[in-house]
Amino acid sequence: MTTGFFDGLSPARYQGTPATDPLAFRHYDPDEVVMGKRMEDHLRFAVAYWHSFAWEGGDPFGGPTFERPWHPQDDMGRAKMKADVAFEMFDLLGAPFFCWHDADLRPEQGSYAENLATLEEITDYVGEKMEGSKTKLLWGTANMFSHRRWMAGASTNPDPDIFAYAAATVKGCIDATHKLGGANYVLWGGREGYETLLNTDLVREGEQMGRFLSMVVDYKHKIGFEGQILVEPKPQEPSKHQYDYDAATCIGFLRKWGLQDEVKLNLEQGHAILAGHSFEHEIAVAAAEGMLGSIDMNRNDYQSGWDTDQFPNNVPEVALAYYHILKAGGFTQGGTNFDAKLRRQSLDPEDLIAAHVGGMDTCARGLKAAAAMLEDGGLEDALAERYAGWDDPQAQAMLTSDLSAIQARVIEQGIDPQPRSGRQERLENYVNRFV
């Protein structure tokens, strides 16, 4: 028996590029083999529970626009109805994974004990739904940013009681993720930052955050959770100065606390843009350090300075992202989570399906373009040619030499180097052949 929310809609199917059905896949064929692996296994798509089902369509200037049968989300009956609708959508999309925050699944009850009880009850219910569905859990996380208790941070909070509440909340969410067979657990530090140094002790807050992460890793091993622990870089919002600003910042922090072999990164396209980077930059930085874990796929509005969380539709951007993911060996336990939401005017249940179908098709086109570029090898050949001089034994010897010896060599050999073209435009034209 269905909820009726998606009445009249059939499961999305691959129909190929001639298809005109707006709810059909034109590029995403789960069984198509790309570089020796099924497309579904490469992309590992996940639906974001919060944006698809918990978000009510509000923005800073207006209230909710969505009128869903499970709104208001204030009791367990509606929470279970929301789960029913969610799994109906997962089945319509053939989604292999989903992701959640605790506050997406359960109603806010006020006390920690009550929230934990409802989280355990709803995850038991979700576990039953999973038994009849192909959809698994990519990752769980704790919402430690929406409620007013988190206004000064969670692990970095000046109040030790809030630190304790945060630790207890994360323990409960790791337990729930473990129970549901999650492949990862994400620490999303939405308010781990500060507004002004006038009331902030940077050293103390950094130490609290580092110790908190260490406790999470210790607990993972204690309970035998085999999933990856991930942290998600996010600049500027909501705190003016976020401690987890970008991939490089997070990597440095993890190395400081000796967690570089225990924690990887969950990277979001929208956050990369807010940090002044491209998505492929963030992916390449994480991959270079062996810390690429998973991605949140969305896009921002380039006329807005805000994290608009729109579904991806830019194939060239997506192709370059997957190029670096494939180059790094692809996902192991991570995947592609659509941390994306409908526009406030997209009111119909059909819009939820269409948005995900379009995003999945965009990613499929990007993945195939990325694979074609790697198989062609043009970019790799260009890199090899550009750095070929470093293959010379004398060049390699410089890296273990000293300034005086290098100076003597320059004088002795009369080295007078001339600049060489970086050929950027030719490489951009090369990429355009595939996208």
Automatic annotation (TrEMBL):
Q: Name one GO cellular component term.
A: cytoplasm
Keyword terms, alphabetized: Carbohydrate metabolism, Cytoplasm, Isomerase, Magnesium, Metal-binding, Xylose metabolism
Molecular-function GO term, any one? xylose isomerase activity
Enzyme Commission code: 5.3.1.5
Superkingdom, taxonomy of origin: Bacteria
Q: Where in the cell is it found?
A: Cytoplasm
Q: Give the first-level EC class, as a single word.
A: isomerase
Residues binding Mg(2+) 1 are E232, E268, D296, D339
Record field: catalytic activity? alpha-D-xylose = alpha-D-xylulofuranose
Any idea which residues are catalytic in this one? H101, D104
Q: How is the cofactor bound?
A: Binds 2 magnesium ions per subunit.
What InterPro entries has UniProt attached to this entry?
Xyl_isomerase-like_sf, Xylose_isom_bac, Xylose_isomerase
Q: Which family does it belong to?
A: Belongs to the xylose isomerase family.
Could you describe the subunit structure of this protein? Homotetramer.
Spell out the protein name for this chain. Xylose isomerase
> Which species expresses this protein natively?
Jannaschia seohaensis
